[in-house]
Each structure stands twice: as C-alpha cells, then as structure tokens.
Specification:
Layout: E1 12-14, H1 20-24, E2 30-31, E3 34-39, H2 40-59, H3 70-78, E4 91-92, H4 95-104, H5 110-118
Antiparallel strand pairs: 1-3, 2-3, 3-4
Length: 121
C-alpha cells in the first residue's frame, strides 16, 4: 500500500513523464524507484535565468541553444540531474533528498526551511 503524501511534496513538481511508466513503459520520469522532481522555487528561478540568457544571446546576435518557451525550458531542465545545490536540474524523489533540499534551498522561505529541519514527517 502506498504511503500518504508528505507535506514536502507540495513544494516539488514531478517530472512531466511520471505517469508514463505504467501506461507506456517510458521510465524517463523515474530514477530507480523514485520519481524525478524539481523544487518549484528553483524551477521558477532557473526558468527565468534561462529566459534571460536566451534574450542576452539574441541581443548579441548569437543563436540561442534553448527555446524561450517555458515548456521547452522545463523539458530541458528535467533532462539535467542536479549534483550540487546550486546546479540546475531534477532531484530524486526520496524523502531525505527532498527534505534536505528544502532545508538548504536558497529560494525557499525560512519557515519552509525550518519545517524541513524540525518536522520531517
């Protein structure tokens, strides 16, 4: 029986292909037995950064490698695996990984950081 969702899940966006594993066998939204997730606050920040990078490239007459549309940027970001806190990319949906991220995320408000540190479940 699956566990009830934890409070921390409200702070993460699941990979867009999450449900395809059972429907089509496409496991691109998964790593091992955990769904790939992206912190909403990080996602907003990273999308904005890439849109600015795109605009700068165009202004300088350089071909921007990533389209400016949000759905394309999100697809690009979900293709990256974050290894460190400052890197862009998804995180494995393990409880300890997500709580650690919330506790240390530079974009989360202090009350969320405190909840992640003090009340993990």
């Amino acid at each position: 029986m699956p566990r009830a969702p934890g409070w921390w899940q409200a702070y993460f966006q699941d990979h867009p292909q999450r449900n395809n594993k059972e429907l089509t066998g496409d496991a691109s939204g998964w790593v091992s037995d955990k769904v790939k997730t992206y912190c909403f606050q990080c996602l907003e920040q990273h999308v904005a950064e890439i849109q600015m990078e795109h605009d700068r490239a165009i202004a300088q007459g350089v071909n921007a490698m990533i389209p400016r549309e949000r759905v394309a940027i999100e697809s690009y970001l979900f293709g990256l695996k974050a290894v460190t806190l400052r890197e862009r990319g998804w995180r494995r949906g393990a409880v300890s990984t997500l709580l650690n991220h919330l506790a240390t995320c530079p974009y989360q408000p202090n009350d969320v950081k405190s909840m992640a540190l003090e009340n993990p479940s």
